[in-house]
């Protein structure tokens, strides 16, 4: 079995929130803050992304009849998954398999 190449992209609110969090952490580091909720949350996100690169279907699968209209309309999803992270937050993602040669998987964090 050929190992699939996995790419991860952040879209929409996920990308915006990730960039804001990253900027807050940079500001905290400038102030000498080395441990905060923001930093814990960021590490949790990075850890889950790392896991998803190896095991992209390791999250909790959301049944098709429970997928919100927002995800269907905005991102045209056919599947939806969730991974819990620190502080009661979660990452919502979809798995896309481009038609090329079926050796590639794209994970879209939305």
User: What's the β-strand tally?
Assistant: 5
- Average pLDDT: 91
Query: Cα-atom Rg, whole angstroms?
Result: 15 Å
SSE class? alpha+beta
Name the shape in a single word: globular
Largest sheet: spatial strand order: 1-5-4-3-2
Relative strand content: 15-25%
Distance between the termini: 29 Å
Task: Give short descriptive properties of this protein.
single chain, 110 residues, alpha+beta, 5-stranded mixed beta sheet, 5 strands, 25% strand
Structure description:
The chain is of the alpha+beta class. The chain has one domain (5-109). The protein has helices spanning 12-30, 37-54, 69-75; strands spanning 5-10, 60-62, 80-84, 90-96, 104-109. The longest helix has 19 residues, at 12-30. The two termini are 29 Å apart.
What order do the helices and strands come in, and which of them pair?
Blueprint: E1 5-10, H1 12-30, H2 37-54, E2 60-62, H3 69-75, E3 80-84, E4 90-96, E5 104-109
Parallel strand pairs: 1-5
Antiparallel strand pairs: 2-3, 3-4, 4-5
In brief, what are we looking at here?
Helices cover 40% and strands 25% of the residues. It is α+β, with helices and mostly antiparallel strands and 110 residues long. The longest helix is centred in the N-terminal third of the chain and has 19 residues.
